[in-house]
Amino acid sequence: MLPDADIAEVLGALGANPRLAAEHLVDLANDRGGVDNISVVIVSSCTSGRLGAELG
């Protein structure tokens, strides 16, 4: 329901808050005629140099 450019725009504006970005993307898809289940998965990665460093 959303072109890549629209998804990129939302992530550029709201990507620092993944929950808000995901909710906004679902709302946009519904507003634009979402006719079935809509799912959003946002993945963030860190390059800390140590596997699992962000967990410890």
Describe this structure in words.
By secondary structure, this protein is mostly helical. It has helices spanning 4-14, 18-31. Helix 1 packs antiparallel against helix 2. The longest helix has 14 residues, at 18-31. The model has no long low-confidence stretch (mean pLDDT 85).
Distance between the termini: 39 Å
The sequence of SSEs as H and E is HH
Radius of gyration: 14 Å
Helix content: 40-55%
Count up the helices: 2
Q: Structural class of the secondary structure composition?
A: mainly alpha
Apparent shape: elongated
Would you kindly provide a brief summary of this structure?
With 56 residues, this protein is mostly helical. The protein is built from 2 helices and no strands.
Which helices and strands occur, and which strands form pairs?
Elements: H1 4-14, H2 18-31
Helix pairs in contact: 1-2
Keywords:
45% helix, mainly alpha, 56 residues
